[in-house]
C-alpha cells in the first residue's frame, strides 16, 4: 500500500510538471481560436442565438474559466446524445484533447499568443438558409416581465397563403436570444389556437396547444439554439393549406429585466407537390403516473414496421423528471442498434436529431423506446419539492414521454399501410392520455367528449357511449351532450336508447337540425317510417344544405313508397359537397330508386 | 473543541483587520470615493452584491436581489451593488441599473479592493459585512444553480435570506460561506 502511494505521488508531481510546461505554450491564437471559431461562434456571435459572443480574443478571455468548466462538464457545445449513437446533422462534439486544451489555457491565464488569428467562419447576420419566400411574425411583441421563473407563451400567426403551398423548411429567429430558449412549432388548420390567442388580451397566450395544432404530415418542426434544420429535398416538401396558422410555443427563460419577445419565422417554398411523404411514428406512454419520491419509473413502448423504411430523424420529448432516454431498433436479423440514447435528459435541449444518412430499417424491425424518470427530491430538475405524484399531461408540471421517428417507406405504395397502422396506434395512446387526465379530473366534461370521439374513431362504441353518458351527467341541460350520446348509442346498435337521447336533445332545443336528422334515421331503421319522415322533413327544413339529412329524407320517402319524392330529394343531395363514402352510397341508392320508379 | 473555537475567533479578527485601512478607490457613479464597509447609522450590516453587466446568471438574479433588498432594508440591512470590472464604466453601469430596475446604491470597485476584502470569486456573489468590515456571510444568493447548465426550477435553500434573517435576529449565521455559480472574476480582471 505504502509503495503504491509513493509511486502515485511521484507520478502526480511528474504529471503536473508536464502539464505546466504544456500550458505555457497553449495560446489563443494558435490553439484556442480554431476550436472556438469552429464549435462555438455559430451561436456565440453578435446577433446569434447565444447570450454572449465569443468572436474575439477579449470576448473569449473574459470567459476562459467558464469555457473550461462548461466544456469539461459537456454542457457546451450542447449535445445530449451519448457518444457513438447515430450520426446526426450538427453533431460536432469536442474531443477529449480539445477539452483538455481549453482547460490548460484557462489555467495558464488565457494567454493571447502571437501571429494571425484563423479566419472567422462567414456567418450571415440574417437568414442562414437564404432569403425566405415568406417571413411572418406575431402581430405584436410579448413583454416578458422581470420574473424569477421560466414562462411559456403560445402565438397563432396567420400565414397569408391563398392556395395550397408546398414547404421545404422554415428558419426560426428567436428575436431575443436572452430569453427565448426553445420553440415548439406546429400548424393549425383550424382557428382553435387563434381563438385561444385572441381570448388573451396580451400577445400570445399561456396554456396548452389544442389538438388541432399538429406537425405537418410526415415532418417535424421546432427550434433549439444552434439548430437550423436543412431544407428537405423538393420531392419531400409538405403541404400548407390556405387559412392555416403557424403555432409557435416559446419556452422563455428570464433575463432579469423586462424583455420584448418577437420571434420571426421564414418559410421556404417548393414549386411542386411532393412525390413522397414521410410518416411520423410516436412511441411512448400517456398512462404515466409516477408516485411521489419514486426514483426510478420506467415506461416502454414498441412498434414493428410492416414495410421497409428509412429512418430520417428522431425526436425525444419529455419534461423535467425524465433522466434517461433510450431508443432501439431491433432488426429482423437479431441484431439491434441504439438510435437514441441520452443519460442526462434536459427539457431545454429538445433537438430534432436528423440522420446524416438515412438508416435503412427492413420490414419486421421493432422500434422500441424506454424512458426512465426520477420523481425523487434527488432529481435537481424536479419542479415540485417535496415531490408530488405526477400524471401524464401536456403542462410542463405534468410529465410526458414520447420518442418520435420520421420514417420514409422505401416503396411509396407501402406507405398507406404503415400510415394507417401508426395512426390507429397513436390514437389508442391518445385515448390512454385522456383516460389519465380523467383520472386526475373526472369532472371535465370536455375531456369525456374528446375521448369519446377518439373511441368512435377507432370503432370502440361501448367506451364512447360510457364517456358521453358521463358528459351528459355533468351537463344535464346540454342538448349537444344528449345528441352526442344518441349518436354513439345509434352506432353501438342501441337504437331504443338512441331515440330517447335524441328526444331528450330536442326537448332542450327544438330546432336542433342534426338531432332531428339522426332521430329520423334511427326511427327509419326501426321501421317507424311515419315518425321518421316527420323528423327528417324538419331536419331538412332547418338545414336545407345538409346532404346527410337530405339523403335520410330520400330514404324515408322511398320507404314510404313516395319514390318520385325520394328521387327529387336525393337529386338535391347529390348537388352538395359531401364525404366520398356518403357520395358513393347516395349514387348507388339513386340508381336503385330509378329502377323502382314505375314506368 | 475549545481550541478550535479560539482559532476561529482569531481568524475572524484577521479577516476584519484590513478594514481598518478601508478601501480608498471605491467610487459611486459620480466618481466620488465611498466606503461601503462603514455602516451608516442605524444599519447592522451591508450586503455587497457583486455583479457584472454582461453576466447572464448575475442579471437573472436581479428581481431576486431587488426583492431581498426591499425586504431587508426595512430591517437594518443596507444593500449595495458592486461592479468590480473596469470595462463596466459609469455610463455602462447607469444603463445596466436602469435596465434591471435596481434602486439600491451602486459602487464601482475597479481596483477590486472590496473583492479582495471579501474574497468573492464570481458574479453574482454576495458578501454581508458587519461592523468593522467583518464578513458575516459570503457566497450564493440561493441554491438554484448547481453548475452551468444544471439548475433547479426553483431554489430549495434561500441561503442569503437565511443568513440575513440570522443577522437581523442577532444570531450566529449557520452557513457562513457557500460556493456561488456564475461568471469568474479571475477571467474578467486579467
Beta content of chain B comes to 15-25%
Question: How does CATH name the architecture of chain B?
Answer: 3-Layer(aba) Sandwich
Number of strands of chain B: 9
Largest sheet descriptor of chain B: 5 strands, mixed
Shape of chain A: elongated
- Mean pLDDT of chain B, to the nearest integer, reads 89
Structural class by SSE content of chain A:
alpha+beta
The proportion of residues in beta strands of chain A is 15-25%
Number of helices of chain A: 16
Largest interface comes to: A-B, 35 and 28 residues
Count of structural domains of chain B: 1
Residue share in helix of chain B: 25-40%
Q: What does the oligomeric state look like here?
A: heterodimer
Number of DSSP-assigned strands of chain A: 21
The low-pLDDT segments of chain B are 1-19
Describe the global form of chain B.
Answer: globular
Describe the structure.
Helix content of chain A is 36%, strand content 21%. Chain A has helices at 2-24, 28-39, 57-61, 64-72, 96-107, 192-199, 415-440, 445-457, 461-474, 479-491, 495-508, 513-525, 529-542, 547-559, 563-574, 580-596, and strands at 134-136, 142-144, 151-158, 165-173, 180-188, 213-214, 222-223, 238-240, 245-252, 259-261, 264-270, 279-284, 289-290, 297-304, 309-318, 322-330, 336-342, 353-361, 366-373, 390-391, 401-409. In chain A, the strands form 6 sheets. In chain A, strands 3, 5, 6, 7 and 9 form a 5-stranded antiparallel β-sheet that branches. A 4-stranded antiparallel β-sheet of chain A has the order 1-11-4-8, with no helix packed on it. Chain A has a 4-stranded antiparallel β-sheet with strand order 12-21-15-18. In chain A, α8 packs antiparallel against α9, α10 packs antiparallel against α11 (495-508) and α13 packs antiparallel against α14 (547-559). Chain B contains 7 helices and 9 strands. In chain B, a hairpin with a 2-residue loop joins β7 (145-147) and β8. The longest helix of chain B is centred in the first third of the chain and has 15 residues, at 2-16. Chain B is globular, with a radius of gyration of 16 Å. The N and C termini of chain B lie far apart (41 Å). Chain A binds chain B through residues 51-52, 61-66, 69-70, 73, 75-76, 106, 109-110, 146-150, 178, 253-258, 320, 346, 380-383, 385, and chain B through 54, 56, 58-64, 99-101, 146-154, 156, 183-184, 186-188, 190.
